[in-house]
């Protein structure tokens, strides 16, 4: 999702000499293949958006896989970029790198000041390792590698897998299918009290290209809206957009995840960036994309991503 959005933004701004590879074309977990790619192509600028991602259930079921795959692929790419003289690299992480009980809104300086949320600890540790490796290369070798920490993302080319997706795309699919089946109610996890922030992926892409051209530094940059919504209200909003009119029930035996996770985006604003897409408009755009590609999701498959 993020990689394709960055590609669209680069093309929109007139960039033409762009290198991409799908997972089938290049497995980033294979170090030799990654080094062969960098040796052959020698890209000058790299956006590292590839990752193994998923919601609470996916993280709980594959803790080791989430840590290993993410750590290996990011280390392979960042190291090969350094080895083959990449001028600048931008590493994309996640707001889950911050402590579970960090003061809100969360500043970039909150990193490593407390314990992580257990439901996505493995993923967070891998992302922390990636951004720290970028920082350490800068400090040891004088590279110009930066990192961006987005809040919860959604939009075109999202993952709508029934058990491996994040909350917003999961709700879109669940309410759509409930509407189609005329189900009288939909059950959601937790009690709906958890607060979350959501950023439309094309807004993130604008920031990513802007930072590549205008920012250097060891500290990461938060990417978000500065606005939050509780999961209960989010579910009601998604149901409204989808047109589902049944009851919404809550399974209190399931976890809520982090109670609150709002990013302080003042640094990005000071650099000259502000998000453009409000949540309802973004959900409308995401639902339109879902409808156009629904056949790709009916069997539970996840479409190939450009990385």
Write a structural description.
There is one protein chain. The chain has 307 residues and is of the alpha/beta class. It contains ten helices and ten strands. The strands form four sheets. A four-stranded parallel beta sheet has the order 1-2-3-8, sandwiched between helices. Strand 2, helix 5 (121-141) and strand 3 form a beta-alpha-beta unit.
Radius of gyration: 19 Å
Distance between the termini: 9 Å
Percentage of residues in helical conformation:
40-55%
Across the major sheet, the strand order is 1-2-3-8
The overall pLDDT average reads: 93
Percent of residues in β-strands: 5-15%
Record the SSE blueprint.
Blueprint: H1 2-12, H2 31-41, E1 45-48, H3 56-61, H4 63-83, E2 88-92, H5 121-141, E3 145-150, E4 152-154, H6 167-181, E5 185-189, E6 195-196, E7 198-200, H7 201-214, E8 221-223, E9 229-230, H8 231-242, E10 247-251, H9 266-270, H10 279-292
Parallel strand pairs: 1-2, 2-3, 3-8, 4-7, 5-10
Antiparallel strand pairs: 6-9
Helix pairs in contact: 1-7, 2-4, 4-5, 6-8, 8-10
